[in-house]
Structures are given as structure tokens and as C-alpha cells.
From TrEMBL, chains A, B:
Protein name, entry field: Oxidoreductase domain protein
Lineage of origin: Bacteria, Pseudomonadati, Bacteroidota, Sphingobacteriia, Sphingobacteriales
All copies of domain Putative oxidoreductase/dehydrogenase Rossmann-like, residue ranges: 3-105
Domain DUF2520: 123-247
Family annotation (PANTHER family): CONSERVED HYPOTHETICAL ALANINE AND LEUCINE RICH PROTEIN
InterPro entries, A to Z: 6-PGluconate_DH-like_C_sf, DUF2520, NAD(P)-bd_dom_sf, OxRdtase/DH_put_Rossmann_dom, TM1727-like_C_sf
Domain of life from the UniProt record: Bacteria
Annotated signal peptide: none
Organism of provenance: Pedobacter heparinus (strain ATCC 13125 / DSM 2366 / CIP 104194 / JCM 7457 / NBRC 12017 / NCIMB 9290 / NRRL B-14731 / HIM 762-3)
Record SUPFAM superfamilies: 6-phosphogluconate dehydrogenase C-terminal domain-like, NAD(P)-binding Rossmann-fold domains
One Pfam family recorded for the sequence: DUF2520
Amino acid sequence: MKIVCIGSGNVGTHMANAFKENEADIVQVWSKDPANAAALAFETGAQAIADLEDIDLNADLYLIAVKDDAIAKLVRALKAVNGLVVHTSGATDMNVLSGIKNYGVFYPLQTFSKEEPIDFIHVPLCLEANSAENLSALRLIAVKLSPLIYEVNSEKRKILHLAGVFACNFVNHMYRLSQQIVEKQGLDFEILRPLIMETAVKAQNALPEDVQTGPAARNDKQTILKHEELLQKLPHLLEIYKILSNSIKKTR
Amino acid sequence: MKIVCIGSGNVGTHMANAFKENEADIVQVWSKDPANAAALAFETGAQAIADLEDIDLNADLYLIAVKDDAIAKLVRALKAVNGLVVHTSGATDMNVLSGIKNYGVFYPLQTFSKEEPIDFIHVPLCLEANSAENLSALRLIAVKLSPLIYEVNSEKRKILHLAGVFACNFVNHMYRLSQQIVEKQGLDFEILRPLIMETAVKAQNALPEDVQTGPAARNDKQTILKHEELLQKLPHLLEIYKILSNSIKKTR
């Protein structure tokens, strides 16, 4: 299978490498940043291209992994290709690609950082395509990477992307605030890591609503007051503490 | 080693069972709820007692695992005992036990639900005692359960407890809100589980501030606006979305 990778950020890098490990040929890499394209091209044995006019028209898959608002601008350059063109965005409608012959969405519902290795066996792939035939083709490509294949239309994909912000970005921000709290007192974030892990492990087996613990869930007013006192000098965290404690109480 | 367990909730139950598995004798269990005490006593081969006047004066360890505001009331009943008396609370000063001969704190920094099994190898134990001798004794007891032993005074323990609310209780609440978002659209929470796991795994190796992803971290205003639109019918979640997105931007 011949793949052209358009974009070389977190998502493009991890996906190109995962495909390569599964014996696909990454034939070209394009990025608006030529140095970035060159780096990923070198890593995957591809050709780096600086101009989309030089794109190989006969690849099997064109993987768009650029910023959401840059996707539409690529359509003109991809009109002439023969393979399947997919974007990887959670928040962007599939129709942004209409005008291309064969197109779809290949959305990995996962968090990617360049430095952190990732095993695609744990990456849910949300697929959508402009025809049943293209969806089948996309499914055959996807199963090479992950057993977690979901058929999701654009509306539902946007909902998953939004839910992902709560389940990942806001969660990591909570970790970050807890880091701030302990480091301010000369304590090491390391001591919180097992708690973070166990909280995630619980959510693998149970539903979050069934395993909520803590002072707000118990409505332990005395502890909540003590915590609010400890946060007097961090008003920004105090505000978040109050809002989230109230939200937990509300959803009991 | 002979242990008396005072309290039979989430923490008492898991700790008594963990000690039993490590060949300690749970000799007595007391709880304000006699049925609960009887259940844990049966599970651990202990005697259930309904009256603290019947307490065995010669155990090695008295483990207090009751609600925070009930700890102080136990002091009178425990004045005559010869062993080491510890409470397991994160938010309560050690001095609540002063008046007893040998006392301290044995705080497991972890989230416990009765139904979920827990491996104490992953439970950080925060220790404090009223003398160097008692601290040594407590350390010898603690290493039987977990290699994660920390010496933490009452002030710092309260900070850890507060940080734990962010790193666990608020995190689980974020999971819960994401559950609400997907279920409202007929999607299964299951699809978010790998993302939840990966977010926690990242925090095991990196610092949260170094791996923050998402639209707020990228200051991707278009996506944030789209998300806010999707949340119009969930004003409670919209408020939280805005506050946390702003907080992420602020801490960049």
C-alpha cells in the first residue's frame, strides 16, 4: 500500500510511523514546514515534497493530518489524485473534502505527543467515507493498525471529539493543577502518580458515575471548607475547586 | 502482628484485607454499624465488637478508618491501649490523637471503592508518628504492604489530600461529564476508555504541564467555538468548558 502523508505534526508522525511498521510504503511527505516534512520523510524512507503540485497521483491513501482550518485549502491540490483522501480531524465535517473523487475520515480518538511512543492497538479509529465502497476500503486499511474500529458519522464524531476534551485535555489539566499544588509545598508530583493511574484503571471497568469518591461526593462539608482555606492563596484554583465540587454534588 | 480495625468502610475493608493477606491477625473489628463490622469481621476471621469498652488492650496496631469528624470521639476509648494507634485520614491533623500514648498517621493516598480490588503495591503510604520510635515501628509495619513509603507531616499531608481531589475526584468527574456527553447521543462510553488510559499513562512518565494537548492548549478558537455551540443545550457543562479552557490558556 502506498501512502502520501500530508502534515507532519503529532498525528501525522505517529500515523505514518504506525503504517510503516505495518508494511505500508510512505511514498511522500508534505508539510507547510519543509524541515518538518524532511524529518518525517527521512524517518519513514519517503520523499519530502515542498510543493503539492509534485504529489504522486497514484498512491492508495492520502492522509491529511494538518490543522483543522488548513484542510479546506488542500482540496484543490488533491482533486486529481486517484486514491482515497482522508482527513484525521475529530471536529471537521467530512464534506470539507467534497469535490475530491474518493474521500473520507480516519479519526484516531487518542492523544498524541511527539515524544511519547504510542501503540495503535489502543487507538480507536473512527471511520466515515463518501461511499459504501470507500468505507469498505478504509476499513481494510484501518484493521491493519487497530482492532478498535468504529463507523461514526460527522455529527457523532464531533460529539466524540468534544467528549475527548473532557476525558483527556481537561483531565490532564486537573493533573497539572494538582502538580501545581504539591510543588508549591516542595512535594514531588511522583507521589500522586499511583492515584492517577488507579482512577483511570477504575474507569476501564466501571462507569465513572458509579465510582465517584471524595469530599464532594460524600458531601463532607468540613473537609471542603478546609480545602477552600488551603486554596486562599491560589484564587484561580479556588474558583475551579468550588465549581467542580458543586458540579459533583449536582450530579449525585 | 495483632491488629484492631476501627471502621469498616472502603478504607478499613481494603486495609484489613491487605494486612490479613500479609499474615497479620485481624483480632477485632468495630464499626458504628454492627452489621458492617460483622461482615468485615467474618471476612477477616476477626471478632466483631459493638462496644469499644470491649477492645483488646494488647494489639500491636489500632487502625482508625472512620469518617474524619468521628476520629476525635474515639480518643477516650483508646487511651488505655498499649499498641500504636493510627488514623488513616488525609485531611486530619495527627494531634487529634494526642492523649493516647503511642499514635500516628497511616494515610493511604489512593482511591478505594468496596467493589474494586486494589493492589497495595500501588498505594503510597504517608506516615507520621508522635515519636521517632513509633515512626520506626510504623515504617516496619508499612513496608509489609507497599514499597511506596513516605514520611509526611500533617501540614503536607493535607496538601496531598487536596491535590488528590484534583488528581482523582475531579478527574473522575471529568470522565463522568464525558460519559454524559456521549450517552446523550447514543454513543457508548467504551470508545473513550483508551483515551482515558493513555492520558493517565502519559502522566506516569512526563509532567502534565509538558504533555497538555487539545484546542485550548493550541488556542484553536474555531474548534472551541464549535464545542461551545454543541454544549448550548447543556449549560452546566458549557460553564465548565469555558472555565477550564480559560484556565488551560492561562497556564500556558
